[in-house]
Amino acid sequence: MVEEKLEFDQSLLGQEVEAGSFEVTREQILALCKAVGETNPLFTDEEEARRRGYRGLLAPPTITNLLIRSFNRPEVKVNFGSLRLHAGQAIEPLEPICAGDHLTGRTSLKDVYTKTGRTGTMAFIVWETRFTNQENTDVARVRESFMVRR
Amino acid sequence: MERYFEDVDLGDEIGPLERAITDDEVVEFTTVSGQGGNRPSRFTSDEQAKKEGLPGAIVPGIMSMALLSKLLTDWAGSVDVKLLDVIFRQTVPHNQSLKLHGVVTDKREGEGQGTLEADLYLDTAEKGHHITARAVFTLSAKD
């Protein structure tokens, strides 16, 4: 089946841009835990986290999802539909992230394509982001996929 | 509870974690996540969601993902997540009973730590799988 040709800003493909810098705070970690009922002491008790060998209060694996929400991303300008939904998300934690860490997110547009299923044709927009910490160590990779419907 | 690599077998069930996500909990989460908080959005307002073509206000995907992460950490204790790969198959509604659960699908030995894989799900009784996920994680060996 020939997939629909999409119009979008192709100059963005593969171009890594710095999208934001963040301090991971104790308050942010505790607020995330409270919001989803997370009670694991590694994420809620700094003493316990240090006792287990971490530098400080450990952030839950999905903390980078929150940081991504405040990204300044260039607009892809996909000329297709209007209802945009989150299709998928993959987080690959590489190193522990703790309260006090300073993270920088660098993001790039990986792919834009269409797929046709039972409910019609959809466009997909895929971003990949890597987070580094204050020592320029890669600490996480995140792949996000967004679906656009007509 | 603390779970060790030796404690786990292929086919072991993870969870379930059964709960509804209330309107207030979504507002709290979106305040933390910067997705709108008290401003009307597809996550916090039925009216706004319907304007956007949705059946009603929905739970943010990253909130559901945080709950799947909690499912794992509740089950395992000191789990080291290496990958959490989630597909959002259907939107997740507020105020409906959800079942988060999973099953261990692979187990591989390693030095000091063993690697496990699991399939995770967020379901409703009415519509089945709303979210499916693959998790790769390590658990410590017993001393």
Please tell me about this protein's structure.
- With 150 residues, chain A is α+β, with helices and mostly antiparallel strands.
- Chain A is built from 4 helices and 5 strands; from the N terminus they run E-H-H-H-H-E-E-E-E.
- Chain B is of the alpha+beta class.
- Helices cover 23% and strands 36% of the residues of chain B.
- Chain B contains 3 helices and 5 strands, in the order E-H-H-H-E-E-E-E.
- Chain B has helices at residues 23-33, 46-51, 61-76; strands spanning 13-19, 80-88, 98-108, 113-124, 128-140.
- Chain B has a 5-stranded antiparallel beta sheet with strand order 1-3-4-5-2, with helices on one face.
- In chain B, a hairpin with a 4-residue loop joins strand 3 (98-108) and strand 4 (113-124).
- The longest helix of chain B is centred in the middle third of the chain and has 16 residues, at 61-76.
- Chain B starts with 12 loop residues before the first strand and ends with a strand.
- In chain B, 37% of the residues are buried.
Taking all Cα atoms into account, the compactness measure Rg of chain A is 18 Å
Rg of chain B, nearest Å: 17 Å
Name the helicity range of chain B: 10-25%
Biggest sheet of chain B, strands in spatial order? 1-3-4-5-2
Instruction: Characterize the biggest β-sheet of chain A.
Output: 5 strands, antiparallel
Number of β-strand runs of chain B: 5
Q: What distance separates the N and C termini of chain B?
A: 16 Å
What coarse outline of chain B follows from CA principal-axis ratios? elongated
- Helix-strand string of chain B: EHHHEEEE
Determine the number of helices of chain B (DSSP H or I, runs of at least 4 residues): 3
The portion of residues forming beta strands of chain A comes to 35-45%
Category by helix and strand content of chain B: alpha+beta
Low-confidence stretches of chain A: none
Give start-end ranges of low-pLDDT stretches of chain B: none
User: Which oligomerization state do the chains in this entry correspond to?
Assistant: heterodimer
Mean of the pLDDT scores of chain A? 93
Main beta sheet strand tally, sense and closure of chain B: 5 strands, antiparallel
Basic shape of chain A: elongated
